[in-house]
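Pipeline run #58 for the internal structure catalog. This entry was flagged by the ingest filter as a single-chain record with no existing model, so it goes straight to prediction. Upstream metadata was stripped on purpose; only the residue string is passed forward. Reviewer on rotation: M.T. Logging verbosity set to normal.
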Amino acid sequence: MKKILCKGFSFSGVVSGLKKNNQKDLGLIYSEVPTSIAGVFTKNRVQAAPVLLDRERIKKGFCRAVIVNSGSANCCTGDQGMKDAISEARLAAYGLNISEELIFVASTGVIGKPLALDKIEAAVPALVKALSPGGINDFAQAIMTTDTVPKIVSRNGNIGGSGFNITGVAKGAGMICPDMATMLCFVCTDAEASPGYLKEALLSSVEKSFNRITIDGDTSTNDTVLVMANGVSGTVVGSRADKTYFKELLGEVLMELAKMVVKDGEGATKLVDIIVKGAASGSEAEKIAKTIANSSLVKTALFGEDANWGRILAAAGRSGVEFDPGLADIYFNDVLMVKNGMGCGDAAEIEATKVLKNPEFTIMVDLKMGEGKASVLTCDFSIDYVKINADYRS
């Protein structure tokens, strides 16, 4: 299926040798004109050199290109790591013949592994030469680590009779429990929007998407989400109504990408929406939902297709939120498994087990304490998750 991409943007992905498996590992996004840019980054206290560099450069609000490498996170690499991140940007700037201050950098891979800058330098000419509007699949492949599929989502929009596009690319399958971002995500739009508004729209959209997913409870050191708007379509996001519409469309793109990330979780076989309703507040509902979604005992039960509702209620109970367990109901899709804190018997368990055999389903906890509601997407923990992460560096 041909993807409808943003005007004025081109993409590429090549093999540089940073990975041992001879797969694409160096990607580039380039805009033919300067773009507005906004971003959100990891809140982990340990932050990779590219994150620190981008945090500084984004203050000016403009960009022309993003170079991304997989195979090395360039994190915990000391002063040399920052020098290498700057050099990586400089190499891209030289190849594109633009200012290096307009180049952003992102990296993903093994923490503590120095960046093989000589391999990047040798590959940049081919990377620049390969740029094309249709090269987004190559770019998506180049930023993958343990991902099994590239993740690309596009939406078309229309403001005042003028069309525009939003296209997002993400990578992530492990070390996913984002705090302000996800592993890596890059969003391009050919609409015109200010950096300030882009930041506002991105924060809102990320909070409802990437900050509501988990695979393994770990927040990466390299989490980065960047959104770029180059205005080449001629569509201007100006009025309040325009901004609301654009933010909704951006939210759709990020939500679909977030689901793709969880669905592609390392070794995952289930995509599960954990919904908590009836809490005293939305924040308390979210806290309980995240605790359930991150519970290893819950996630292994999901893999085993075991309707072990006691693990769900126990996870809710250790969330730090006060509620009356004697009021709680638990549903697997529309199957009532627990009523007022007590199991509904063998017949209900048989029906709930049928639900667990599906690749996607919902678990809802109704606390009946108030109007607060939240949801978090999670996946199961399989044997393959352990194997993948045990062998990650070998």
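catalog note: DSSP finds eleven helices and 14 strands in the chain.
catalog note: Residues 9-263 form a domain with the L-amino peptidase D-ALA esterase/amidase fold (CATH 3.60.70.12).
status: ready for reviewer M.T.
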